[in-house]
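Issue 218. Parser rejects a valid record. Input:
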Amino acid sequence: MLNSIPGQFKKAAAFINNLTPATTRQEIPDSTQAGLYLVMQPSGSLSWAVRTKIDGKAAKVTIGRYDEVGRDDRAGNIISATQV
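Output the parser choked on:
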């Protein structure tokens, strides 16, 4: 099991850049934003996702690929994604 992503940008970037893909998909929780995960596929592809409730039901909303959505952009995207 991987640790959560550190809250400070430089530490987070180093943590993410040092990730190595496993044989199965992994969800790595963010340490500062509840419900935010970095999803790593066995291929090494990374994307942001939010686990939330929509109409009272558990839902996972994919925000976008890691290389297209930076940490600076994610707060606004989280708000938008959870207001579906």
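Fixed in the parser; the record now loads. The longest strand covers residues 46-54.
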